[in-house]
Design goal:
Elements (H helix, E strand, L loop, with lengths): L59 H9 L2 E12 L3 E6 L4 E6 L1 H5 L9 E7 L5 E7 L7
Parallel strand pairs: 3-5
Antiparallel strand pairs: 1-2, 1-4, 2-3, 4-5
């Protein structure tokens, strides 16, 4: 006949007291499950954390000064147009660098062509690359 560990109990034993099922004494009690329904998922009955005072705003001069610590601003002439918004730029101090278009110029569809004068921010860490931040107006006498 069929024998297994399940047949050791009679067929009339309720499943709640079956040896293979977890008994209520073995389950972990969660205090959140005993809370009323509105508090079941959130802990909104706890007081909110104390508010910290807002950090003081830096003046605009301090922000500009901070970014100026890491960049040199030069003027130069576009010598050659390269793919992906990159240009060969001859700076006024006769350095030849690789310049790339800044996001603001790219967003406003500013056309930059060879022969244009531009303002370039050059990093102090890598002086062979720079960000083109402004296209200078050409002064043509009329």
């Amino acid at each position: 006949m069929f024998t297994s560990s399940l047949t050791s109990h009679s067929l009339h034993t309720p499943l709640l007291h079956h040896p293979l099922l977890p008994s209520p004494s073995r389950t972990h009690f969660s205090p959140l499950l005993a809370l009323p329904l509105p508090f079941h998922r959130t802990l909104s009955f706890l007081p909110p954390p104390p508010l910290r005072p807002a950090a003081p705003a830096l003046p605009a001069a301090a922000k500009a000064e901070k970014s100026g610590e890491q960049k040199w601003v030069h003027e130069g002439l576009i010598m050659e147009s390269l793919p992906n918004g990159m240009f060969r730029v001859r700076l006024d101090n006769d350095d030849l660098i690789l310049g790339y278009i800044s996001g603001k110029i790219r967003k406003n569809y500013v056309r930059i062509l060879p022969g244009d004068r531009v303002k370039v921010e050059v990093s102090r860490y890598d002086s062979s690359k720079g960000r083109i931040v402004y296209r200078l107006r050409t002064s043509t006498p009329s």
